[in-house]
Design brief:
With about 325 residues, the protein is of the alpha/beta class. About 45% of the residues lie in helices and about 20% in strands. The chain has two domains: about 90 residues, Arc Repressor Mutant, subunit A (Orthogonal Bundle); about 200 residues, Rossmann fold. It has 13 helices and ten strands. The strands form two sheets. A seven-stranded mixed sheet has the order 6-5-4-7-8-10-9, with helices on both faces. It has a three-stranded antiparallel sheet with strand order 1-3-2. Strand 7, helix 11 and strand 8 form a beta-alpha-beta unit. The model has no long low-confidence stretch (mean pLDDT about 85).
């Protein structure tokens, strides 16, 4: 671990050396949270939590990401500070009562998020494809994915195509025929019911869907040739975890294809459609892909005519290490 100066180290240690701030660091080690969510977890007032967060941010221990009327906080990703934070958090007593209660309340906060998202999916499963078409022209997105996939495949065939957050199975419906095997994962049983009906209708015996979390995919490391995340990441509490998982299951030499919204200010999508994030900027996605161990290769934006949303698309490759050649 290398930190630029003694003063930086002392500043970080002073910021961390307070009970509430230690609890904040321990909770943020489990994923990014808003101020409101931290108040629910720590049972302290918003002004108090905000004051602690400012001290942690000033010391370089946490990063602040404003997004519309929400502000997300996460642990700093700098390598040196990351090592320091890891040592601090690893030193916390595992059986501490306050830390355990914080984790219990975090589980409740996450359960509320999941229920809200699943309630939305359950209520809208049958109209999901129509809703997506209402937001953006999906045909343009599908055409671009088709082009990227064609470039990746050449004259070959995909052994395994994986669609994370498959929803109604649209990606499997379109691109499944290109693969020897295509698997879609989704957490919502309602979505999977519709996806299965589509597979039955088309007779695509090489396609299947399974219930599964994008951040915990039941596949072995390095098994997929291409992984698709189509309009998924903006729903997730921690999109970095999903990208890490996509990278894990991708073969060396394989690719991850992402389609999602660019940055926007449509706050109504949070209340009406359970969107967690208001799109992703190019620099943010680039950093997340690198953090997942992927090499960004292509990025496009597709402007939605007469619509307030822009679709952003990314291709990232999993490079082959010299030991694998």
């Amino acid at each position: 671990m290398y930190i630029e100066s003694m003063e930086n180290l002392l500043s970080a240690l002073r910021a961390a050396g307070e009970p509430t701030r230690l609890r904040i660091l321990a909770i943020l080690a489990l994923g990014e949270l808003t101020v409101s969510e931290l108040t629910q977890v720590l049972l302290q007032s918003q002004p108090r939590i905000s004051r602690h967060l400012k001290l942690l941010a000033d010391a370089g221990l946490v990063l602040r990401y404003p997004e519309g009327s929400w502000v997300f906080y996460r642990l700093h990703e700098n390598a040196a500070l990351g090592d320091l934070l890891g040592e601090i958090i690893a030193s916390l007593p595992e059986g501490d009562h306050d830390l355990q209660r914080d984790r219990d309340r975090l589980a409740e906060v996450r359960a509320e998020r999941a229920k809200r998202a699943q309630d939305y999916f359950a209520a809208n499963a049958a109209q999901w494809d129509n809703l997506r078409a209402h937001h953006i022209p999906e045909t343009a997105v599908e055409t671009r994915i088709d082009e990227l996939m064609g470039d990746l495949m050449g004259e070959g065939r995909i052994d395994l195509l994986v669609d994370l957050g498959t929803g109604t199975g649209r990606m499997l419906e379109i691109f499944g025929p290109r693969a020897a095997r295509a698997v879609g994962f989704d957490i919502s049983p309602d979505m999977l019911t519709i996806a299965r009906a589509k597979i039955d209708e088309t007779g695509a015996e090489n396609c299947q869907v399974r219930q599964g979390d994008c951040a915990n995919v039941p596949l072995e490391d390095g098994t997929a040739d291409i992984v698709i995340l189509h309009q998924v990441l903006h729903f997730l509490d921690d999109p970095q975890r999903a990208l890490n998982e996509a990278a894990r299951i991708t073969k060396p030499g394989g690719a991850v294809l992402i389609a999602d919204f660019g940055p926007h200010e449509m706050e109504s999508l949070r209340d009406e459609h359970a969107h967690r994030r208001l799109g992703f900027a190019e620099e943010e996605m680039h950093a997340m892909l690198l953090a997942a161990g992927l090499a960004p290769k292509a990025a496009d934006t597709l402007n939605a005519k007469d619509a307030p949303l822009t679709v952003a698309m990314w291709q990232a490759d999993k490079t082959i290490r010299s030991t694998e050649l």
